[in-house]
């Protein structure tokens, strides 16, 4: 089988973590993939971190690649016209074009994402949709793969997408082997939600103390009145202040905390789904399944499999 050529396009102020993801994953299979870091101009590339980035090739690398990957960069920057032309040319030639995190802001102005679903880091989904209204931005998934074009959400979702590409190219066993050595879940489906925890109020006062109290009493049946009483507010006043501080309602925040704690127990224990549901105040296994399906687009068993299966990882004395 011929080597699969991957060009990783480092734009100015490239995100180092995003750049490292494809290099770490695809370079682990040197008999299958070759990777090249390229840039509009070969040489030093400014990054978001203290480490220097050196591009060994220019945009001509995109014309020879089987897969082009654009890591995240500062989305306030609009790539030069020659970059957009090179990306379009690679796609028209049949290369697979991929973005990680805010790399979607390099694909969007090329038109490659027009009338397609795509994603990016949750913090920038609204901005991507505003600037490029022809793109169907999905803020609630880890990655979107159309076969020829793929985009991922922020940071670690880039790992999920790259492992997914390996799985497409060489099967689940190869992808799982890479995941084990990286000590990451071997498979999180693209449709799984970006797992965000509802924030605590930022005032650091009564509301924050009440939220902390609630998180330590998730096994109890808590109401808005209970939370308001602890905070010393009337229920309506409490609900108004809470929404102003968190952007959500007390009950939605409380449910998110229950699901968040259930996820942690699924990741770290072998307790039954029913036992976990009771301990976090969700009542029944069926209710936990419903909440996890709604919030993370997955089931308790699939979630536990993904996390516990690979997080056992290889032994430290393993030689590969």
TrEMBL record:
InterPro entries: Class_I_gatase-like (IPR029062), DJ-1/PfpI (IPR002818), Homeodomain-like_sf (IPR009057), HTH_AraC (IPR018060), INH-QAR (IPR052158). This is AraC family transcriptional regulator. Residues 208-306 form the HTH araC/xylS-type domain. Keywords: Transcription, Transcription regulation. The keyword rRNA processing does not apply. PANTHER family: ARAC-FAMILY TRANSCRIPTIONAL REGULATOR, HTH-TYPE TRANSCRIPTIONAL REGULATOR RV1931C. Gene3D superfamilies: 3.40.50.880, Homeodomain-like. Coiled coil: none annotated. Pfam families: DJ-1_PfpI, HTH_18. CDD domains: GATase1_AraC_1 (cd03137). GO terms for molecular function: DNA-binding transcription factor activity; sequence-specific DNA binding. SMART domains: HTH_ARAC. The lineage of its organism: Bacteria, Bacillati, Actinomycetota, Actinomycetes, Actinopolysporales.
